[in-house]
């Protein structure tokens, strides 16, 4: 990090890929608290409210507000690394939010398309994704510097993408709010040029921070998945590739339920005929024990032939026919 940036009035611009965006409707009261605004945003978040840092824009004429969201742990780690270098940004913005035109527009910046404007769009798209979107929104301005990679898909050439972003600061949402608001007050936008330069240099640092954060999340999810696997399949070893073990478990033959086993036995009884169940019970240790009445022993022999694993524990001739107790370990 350049040493001359320490102590300078720096504006930090983060890539849209790190942030989320939404709009909330009117909130009662002249100056609603951050807690109230947060609860109004909660149902649009993909993460728990306590794990996200929210920044709110001012209310428009209809009372709606822009909301920028970023993982709290990721932003704290990034700000901590900057403060260790003596850099305390006077403002933190998201690049797509700096596109503050009166209508939706797109800008080629740092190898991808930024979508922004006052009509509710705030996205970062690859060139391939933008191609599909451009067919639907051909009338929207697609801006790119002459000679840049995105110039071929541009409908409006520009001199400098950085200048376009610098012009949009007035309507952008500053992420330095709430617990992350800046304590020291300095001249707003002094040294903006150095801030934009820092934004370009920060791409590598942000990638590093984001990679660290994603690796931490991946490790946490892996540990949670292992705990779930051990709970539902305790015979599985925690070593080896987790995805492979899960695929093997998915293709493992499913154990028939008690109702399915009883239904299978009933089907065999219908096929044999002349056999009636009087009582049936099942235990994990002994399997099925079934008391039946048949017209003759030959009916029981046919039933045993149709149901592998079934054996007769006892049988006797009675007035109604043959009473027998059958045991059946497992339905095949």
From TrEMBL:
This is GspL cytoplasmic actin-ATPase-like domain-containing protein. The chain crosses the membrane at residues 188-206. It comes from the Bacteria. SUPFAM superfamilies: Actin-like ATPase domain (SSF53067). GO terms for biological process: protein secretion by the type II secretion system. One of its GO terms (cellular component) is type II protein secretion system complex. InterPro entries: ATPase_NBD, GspL_cyto_dom, T2SS_protein-GspL. Keywords: Membrane, Transmembrane, Transmembrane helix. Pfam families: T2SSL (PF05134). It comes from Pseudomonas putida (Arthrobacter siderocapsulatus). Residues 11-180 form the GspL cytoplasmic actin-ATPase-like domain.
């Amino acid at each position: 990090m350049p040493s001359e940036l320490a102590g300078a009035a720096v504006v930090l611009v983060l890539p849209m890929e790190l942030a989320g965006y939404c709009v909330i409707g009117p909130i009662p009261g002249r100056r609603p608290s951050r807690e109230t605004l947060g609860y109004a945003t909660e149902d649009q978040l993909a993460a728990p409210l306590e794990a996200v840092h929210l920044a709110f824009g001012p209310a428009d004429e209809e009372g709606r507000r822009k909301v920028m969201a970023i993982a709290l742990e990721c932003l704290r780690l990034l700000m901590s690394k900057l403060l260790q270098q003596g850099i305390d940004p006077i403002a933190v913005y998201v690049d797509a939010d700096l596109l503050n035109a009166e209508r939706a527009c797109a800008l080629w910046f740092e190898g991808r398309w930024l979508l922004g404007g006052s009509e509710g769009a705030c996205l970062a798209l690859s060139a391939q994704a933008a191609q599909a979107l451009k067919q639907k929104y051909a009338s929207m301005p697609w801006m790119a510097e002459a000679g840049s990679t995105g110039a071929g898909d541009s409908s409006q050439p520009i001199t400098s993408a950085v200048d376009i972003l610098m012009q949009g600061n007035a309507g952008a949402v500053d992420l330095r709010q709430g617990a992350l608001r800046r304590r020291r007050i300095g001249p707003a936008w002094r040294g903006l040029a150095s801030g934009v330069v820092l934004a370009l240099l920060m791409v590598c640092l942000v990638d590093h921070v984001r990679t660290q954060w994603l690796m931490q999340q991946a490790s946490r999810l892996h540990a949670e998945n292992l705990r779930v696997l051990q709970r539902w399949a305790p015979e599985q070893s925690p070593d080896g590739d987790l995805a492979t073990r899960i695929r093997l478990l998915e293709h493992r033959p499913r154990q028939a339920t008690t109702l399915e086993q009883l239904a299978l036995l009933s089907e065999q009884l219908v096929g044999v005929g002349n056999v009636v169940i009087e009582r049936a019970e099942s235990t994990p240790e002994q399997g099925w024990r079934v008391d039946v009445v048949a017209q003759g022993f030959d009916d029981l022999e046919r039933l045993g032939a149709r149901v592998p694993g079934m054996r007769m524990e006892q049988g006797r001739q009675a007035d109604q026919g043959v009473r027998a107790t059958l045991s059946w370990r497992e339905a095949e």
